[in-house]
Amino acid sequence: MLPDLMNLLRNAVGTDHVLSGETAAPYCTDWRGRYSGKALAVVLPGDTQQVAAVVALCAEHRIAIVPQGGNTSLSGGAVPLPQGQQIVINLSRMNKILALDTTNYTLTVEAGCTLAKVREAAEQVNRLFPLGLTAIAGQCEIGGNISTNAGGIGVLRYGNMRDLVLGLEVVLPDGRVWDGLRSLRKDNTGYDLKHLFIGAEGTLGIITAAVLKLFPHPQSVVTACVAVSDPAVAVKLLAHLRANCGDKISAFEIISRSCLDLVLAHIPDTVEPFVTRYEWIVLIELSDVLQAPLDAPLLNALQAFGTGILEFAIDSKNNAVSWWNLRKNISEAQKREGISIKHDVAVPISHVAEFIAQANTALRATYNGLRIVAFGHIGDGNIHYNVSMLDSAKNPTFIAQSQQVNSIVYDIVHGLNGSISAEHGLGQLKRNEIHHYKSALELELMRSIKHTLDPNNLMNPGKVM
Predict the structure, then answer these.
(1) Bridge-partner residues for 405, per DSSP?
(2) Which of the residues 89, 118, 128, 409 could staple to 215 if both were Cys, CB 3.0 to 4.6 A apart?
(3) How wide is the angle at C-alpha 275 spanned by C-alphas 272 and 278, nearest 5°?
(4) Residue at 451 is within a domain
(5) Local structure of residue 304 (DSSP, 8 states)
(6) Tens digit of pLDDT for each residue in 427-464?
């Protein structure tokens, strides 16, 4: 049956766009190198109708499908399982800008468009698409961003990917195409179906196109690098700035000393932000569509804050680039240092400092010689909390205990009414963990939705649930 299916796939998308064997291998490993699998074939369709044809063939032959974009998933959601019984449908050829409406502030794109291409298209007409994933913007694709409900540094002001999508086109698990490419901001005509597919990680259908929200392009931007005594001060500072600067705050990121040390050690041309080595720094960005400088309002707000700020600097150009390079290179620096146990968690902003303190205490009471790398989007309560051993020789043994480490961290997150996945998704990484932290009713509802749309469990099985 498989040779017949392969021939049918080649007829559907062209012989050159059906890969197998060694040519398929790069699509079967995630970019971190943590997850690898095997695929019967990798299929690269050129348009929605080809996607639909491929999905219909797979449904007919009961072959499971792994939707894939730029393959930059951080939770193993976009690679096939090791059994080698799945077909990868990669959408990278589908990278057209379909429509741009500057009056309606919308951009319609195919799912294979990279985030960098989308941002560039918006900037060419003096608009902004605010999803901020600077480290991988050239590789990650919009379909994957939507499927994982990506976040980034701009969530504080603009929201997650869920907040940036007005309409979707989706190929359903039986090969039918749902055309929901509406550019409406108000459509109160029943269930908002697009939200089923946003954040579903390809388990309910394949997103092939999207209508995205655009925003006015900022004309004034200013960045502050602020050394604070601890995360609790950072949380209070955020509340203070929101009261004094309003929605001009477009980023508020916290970085621990261990992050800075790794970046300075592994990333060329990076420099310490201050002469003094501080344990915690915060990067703050204000932006506005008006051309009036923002330096003075930010300066006044920082000066009025009170105790807890150890030192700060404000810059609207040169130093700001250097500061943001420290933040965007943390993941790359960690990768060069070696593997760690990674956590992408969210708690209410008011509990961020409490989470970091409790997790640090609990882990250090259990393990000696830890390196704890804590950083992230304090403005929306999303902290990346990664743990490894300072002694690289001891790290493999420690990594083998990841389940115990995860339980410590996730139990604390759960106790603070948080989430064990803020922006990376569940994928393979947390598909089992989630059963401990969602109610039985939530899991039942999720399974019911999955069964209704994908009764044969062909769409990205082994992920999320």
Answers:
(1) none
(2) 128
(3) 70
(4) no
(5) T
(6) 888 888 999 999 999 999 999 999 999 999 999 999 99
Range among 20-34, 92-106, 312-326 with highest mean pLDDT value:
92-106
The pair of three-digit structure tokens given for residue 455, joined into one six-digit string: 């009764």
User: What does the CA dihedral 148, 153, 159, 164 come to, rounded to 10 degrees?
Assistant: -60
In a domain, 460, yes or no: no
Q: Find the Cα–Cα–Cα–Cα dihedral 428, 433, 439, 442, rounded to 10°.
A: -10
The enclosing domain of 83 has a CATH number of 3.30.43.10
- The runs of H, that is alpha helices, within 329-388 are 330-337, 352-366
Confidence of residue 135 (pLDDT cuts 50, 70, 90): low
- Residue whose token pair is 């008006």: 290
Is 305 within a domain?
A: yes
Q: Which two tokens stand for residue 61?
A: 């032959």
What's residue 454's pLDDT? 97
How far apart CA 73 and CA 88 sit, in angstroms, is 14
* Enclosing domain of residue 281: 220-331
Residue 1 has pLDDT above 50, yes or no: no
Q: At what angle do helices 352-366 and 402-415 cross, to 10 degrees?
A: 150
Distance CA 396, CA 429 (A): 18
DSSP state of 217: P
Residue 11's pLDDT band (cuts 50, 70, 90)? very high
Give the Cα separation of 140 and 92 in Å (integer): 10
Using pLDDT thresholds of 50, 70 and 90, give the confidence band for residue 84.
confident
DSSP string, 93-134: T---EEEEETTTTEEEEETT-BHHHHHHHHHTTTEE---B-T
Asked whether residue 77 falls in the same domain as residue 126, the answer is no
Identify the three-state secondary structure at position 48.
Answer: helix
> Looking at the structure, do residues 268 and 322 belong to the same domain, yes or no?
yes
Q: How many domains does the chain have?
A: 4
Structural contact between residues 13 and 43, judged by C-beta atoms closer than 8 angstroms: yes
Identify whether 364 is part of a domain.
yes
* Distances, alpha carbon 29 to alpha carbons 39, 91, 99, 282, in Å: 11, 16, 33, 34
pLDDT for res 284? 97
User: Across the strands, what pairs with 109?
Assistant: 97, 210
Distance between CA atoms of residues 298 and 244, nearest Å: 9
Q: Which residue has the tokens 């040779």?
A: 3
Segment 88-104 shows an average pLDDT of 98
pLDDT tens for 245-257 read 999 999 999 999 9
pTM greater than 0.90: yes
Token pair for residue 257?
A: 């000393």
CATH number for the domain spanning 279: value is: 3.30.70.2190
